[in-house]
Structure formats: structure tokens, C-alpha cells
Specification:
Elements lengths: L8 E5 L4 H11 L3 E6 L24 H7 L3 E4 L5 H12 L3 E4 L3 H6 L4 H7 L4 E6 L14 H7 L3 H4 L14 H22 L6 E5 H8 L1 H10 L16 E5 L5 E5 L3 H11 L14 H6 L1 H12 L4 H9 L5 E3 L3 H5 L2 H5 L3 E4 L6 E4 L23 H7 L4 H8 L4
Length: 400
Amino acid sequence: MTAPLQDIRVVEIASFVAVPSAGALLADLGADVIKVEVPGGEVMRHARPRSQGYKSTLTETPHFHMDNRGKRSLVLDLGDEAARRALLQVIDGADVVLSNMLPERLIRFGLDSESLRSRQPRLITASLNGYGTEGEEANAPAFDYTAYWSRTGFMDALHEPDAPPAFLRPGVGDHAAALALTTGILSALRVRDAGGDGQDITVNLMHMGFYIQGNDACPVMTTQQETPRHDRRKPRNPIWNHYETRDGRWLFLVMIDSTRYWDVFCRTIGRPELIDDERYSGPVERYRNSEALTATLAETLASRTLAEWEPILSAQRLIWAPVRTLLEATQDPQAAAIGAFAEVDHPAGTMHTVAPPIHMSGHAMPGTTPGPDLGAHSADILREAGLDEETIAVLTRDLA
């Protein structure tokens, strides 16, 4: 079957995670994605496991390959006028330009949507930044740590009353933003296919932070009150809470409809007497006596190890999960069953990666292709754009 984005060419002028991961999804869907990189390569190429604290001699960066799989690499020094002219010629043959440059920098290099569509009205431009394209902070630099996590209240919301704010792991907000950016691009392509012109797609990390935590943001704005913070010692619903087991591990109970699960849960953990205890006879009573009930459940669940509880709790249709480490989670048989992971063969060694999170019955997206070697396709791409051999030689000299 024809790939969904066959014959679509994307020029990606970006670094780090959010925009490159959107480019990778477009490549998964069959687009020819040209990754424009600075001489020496973008920062994420060099963020090898050892630099992040892993004991590893791997000379490649697994997460760089996840977010850049299937692309072609073009190295250009955009500080050079000839390189900028060459890039515009490459863009003349594209359907989509994807970037995370700040708005003022796009204008300076003549890569803003208005300038590009004056050359090609049907071009789709898509950009991502920290704080949007309007307002005083439109050109403020940002990472998802700042705009998505800290500025939106997300960081403050995800810690218990006596704990410091939680630290964000790499790329969390970026990968969420990539899905939104990809959705916008696919929608714009559909409009264009129906006879419309190109358009500009913008996504920003701050808005994504509010959207992802929208189930909290909406009532906070409506009530003008801060989010009630979860306290595992006295939760509103004691069977929607996390508990420590005898071996210092944790399990997470998520019986949101406590009435439905209360009786079977009590029998499963060997505490049937709690069913007839008037203090816990309904969800309101369990809330009013939450601290005492939570202490009882904590004592009970601390009587066995996590490994001992797993078959007991799994034998019933209870909603719960063990709190896994990430290494343990990647070895989960269910993750393998859903095709969550793939292997990337590379001369530097086999790397494990997270496969694309979309499954299509008519188009395979295995996610096994590595990212491109730096500048590996520069001459070919410039040649396709119509540049002469002399100019190509000058532009590619010593850049890769």
C-alpha cells in the first residue's frame, strides 16, 4: 500500500527534541524529511549515554536516532548568505517547512512563513517555540522544562505537601508537542490536497503544558482556587492511592469508582471485616475517615512484598499497577506484545528504541531505521535542488 505521505517533502530546520520528533513521525508516514543541521551537528547528536550518567561506551545517542530516524541530513552554515540561498532553493521543492527557530531568527534568515509563502503559496510552514508567536515573550528561549513544566504549574502540582517540586525527565513535553505539531501538519496537507493554499501551523510548549493538565486547569480557572494537592496519608479515596510494600517497593491502586470495587478489594487483600465497618460503608464515609483507613491499608499492604502482591491483586479485575522502574518497564511482556520497542542496527552497535506510537493496518511503521550520518546527503539534496557542482563543492567543504 502507498505510504500516507509518499511524495511529500519536509525540510526540518530544528534541533533538540520536539520538532525533530515530529519530523520523525512524518518520515514514519512516508515523507522525505530533510534535516538541516549546523556544521558539527546538532547538540543531541552528541548527548551520548555516558554524558547522561550511564556507564556506557556507546558512541551513538539512542534517543537522537529515535527522533531522527529515516531522515536525510543536509549540513549548511546559515550564517553564510550563499548557504541561505541554497536552503531557499531546497525549500522551493518542499511541501512543508518545519522549524523551532525563534520568530525573530526566522525573519532574520528569511525563513518566516510570510517570506516563504511569497515564493511558494502552497507551502505549509510549521513552527514550535516556548511561548507562542505573540506577546512579550514570543522570542524568549525555552525548553519544555521551563515553558511546559515550570511556568504552567505542572511542576508544582505533581508533588505531595511535604516533598519538593518534581523534576521533569527529558523530552516529556517535547514529545507531546510533537504529536500536536504533526496533527496540524496533516490537517493542513488535507486542506491543500482539497485545493487550498498552504498555511502556518504553530505550537508552543506553554500551551501544551496547560492542555496536557487541562483536567486540572479548567476547574482551577473556574473556581479560582489552587489544585487540591494529593496526600497519600489521607487521600480523598483511599483505594486511589499508592502504597509501600514490605520490600520498599510501591503499588498504585486506581479504583476511582470506589463503590464498585470496595468489597472485592477488601476480600482480595484479606480484610473482609472492613466491608461491614460503618466508618467505611460508602465513599463519603471512606473520605471522612480517610486517614485511619489509609493507615490500615498501608499496614496491610506492607505485610507482603510487591512480588507477593502481584498475583493476588492480578487474580481479580481490580485496577492497579506495580510501580516499575523504567528498566523493569521496558522488559514488561505486555510492552513487547504491543510493539512498543524496536531495535536499530547501526555500525556502532545495536540500539534499542521506542517505536512510533501509531499503528496503521495498511502502513507499517517499525521505527528500526537509524538517524542519518551528519551531512551524508548534503550533496545529493543540493543537486536535487538544482545547484551547480561548483557551488555544491563550496557549500559542503569541511562542513560535515
